[in-house]
Amino acid sequence: MGKRIVIALGGNALGNNLPEQMRAVKQTAKAIADLIEEGHEVIISHGNGPQVGMIQAAMTELTRSDPEKYIPCPLSVCVAMSQGYIGYDLQNALREELLDRGIVKGVATVLTQVMVDHNDPAFAHPTKPIGSFMTKEEADRMVKERGYDVIEDAGRGYRRVVASPRPQAIVEISTVHALVDAGLVVVACGGGGIPVYATEGHHLKGAAAVIDKDFASCVLAQQVDADCLIILTAVEKAAINFGKPNQEWLSDITAEQARQYMAEGHFAPGSMLPKVQAAVEFAESKPGRTALITLLEKAKDGIAGHTGTHIHA
Ligand code: ADP
Ligand code: MG
After folding, report:
1. Most C-beta atoms within 10 A of its C-beta, which of 11, 90, 126, 289?
2. What is the CATH number of the domain that holds 43?
């Protein structure tokens, strides 16, 4: 029986720059096509850390080149651009992969706005890494010259951080529903969605933030009534005591166990923690819903129950 699946693609599904992304999406398309071929309905969301960082850096340079002519580009617009660019690559690669398998199915990217709370405390505490990794020296220079907030990211180097408020609702959800019901493969909530908040009347204003794609995917999965939320990332399983001699990979855990491991601090904030939080929230949102965290290349094995970290109520 085919399931309705939301797949959240991590950084390794898209690469860190233009040529890397072109190569990476070919592999990503294979993993997604495997699931479509098995009869599942697939809705794709994805991160945009490196891409939105690249776009933002480029737009900043443009403004610096001629401040009279080019006013600064809001971060929400940079997120929208990243959705378009990544959606294009995914549509292109998936179309080709599906046709190569004799599957005739449209792929549609929905530019997606996601509501956030303008009073979310996250606006005062930037946590979301964007852009490429920097050395300590580069990071110090960005802090001094551009006023960036910078953190050390899970032992892999330094990165700029921006505010990351919680997603509340997906503005284009009925559009996503209509396309899924029409049998299309839908790409939505890219980069966590374009963050917007309500102001006067019906106006939605873009926010200077990047929403975590794991949390946005969790909202998306609930709102499209998915059976399964699959978070594809750079590790085959989540672990407790990660990176320590007593590390243990997790295969099958209840939401309750996951909560305990979270409380004990086993998952790094900004990387594995939001995935486990999203998985727990989705698994507990309705009976029968399950979440899976695994490697991109293991999506098919994972959904068959052979690998990955499965989280259920
Ligand atoms: P993505 O781009 O897929 O969101 P992230 O880099 O944000 O990927 O998160 C995945 C990373 O989380 C892994 O590559 C790993 O280095 C790190 N990580 C932190 N804590 C854990 C843990 N407890 N178990 C497994 N991976 C962890
Ligand atoms: Mg991440």
Report:
1. 90
2. 3.40.1160.10
**Residue 161 belongs to some domain of the structure:** no
Predicted pLDDT of residue 142: 85
What does the pLDDT look like over 35-71, one tens digit per residue?
999 999 999 999 998 999 999 999 988 988 998 999 8
Q: How many CB atoms lie within 10 A of CB 137?
A: 8
Give me the number of domains the chain comprises.
1
Residue 123 lies in a domain: no
Q: Is the CB of 272 inside a 6 Å radius of any atom of ligand 1?
A: yes
- 164 lies in some domain: no
Give the ligand with the smallest distance to the CA of 164: 2
Q: Cα–Cα–Cα angle for 163, 169, 175, nearest 5°?
A: 120
CA 158/CA 308 separation, integer angstroms? 28
Report how far ligand 2's centroid is from the alpha carbon of 285 (Å). Answer: 22
Give CA–CA dist 221/311, Å, rounded: 15
Mutate to test the pocket of ligand 1, among 52, 272, 273, 298 (most ligand atoms within 8 A of CB): 272
Q: Is the pTM value of this prediction over 0.90? A: yes
Give the structural domain span for 56.
Answer: 4-115+176-312
Q: Are 238 and 27 in contact (CB under 8 A)?
A: no
- Backbone angles phi and psi of 107, in degrees to 5: -120, 125
pLDDT at residue 1 tops 80 = no
- How far apart (Å, rounded) are the C-alpha atoms in residues 216 and 278? 9
Q: Cα(75) to centroid of ligand 2, in Å?
A: 18
- Sorted by sequence, the CB contacts under 8 Å of residue 249 that are 6+ apart come out as 236, 237, 238, 239, 309
Angle between helices 173-181 and 213-223 (to 10 degrees): 60
144 within domain boundaries: no
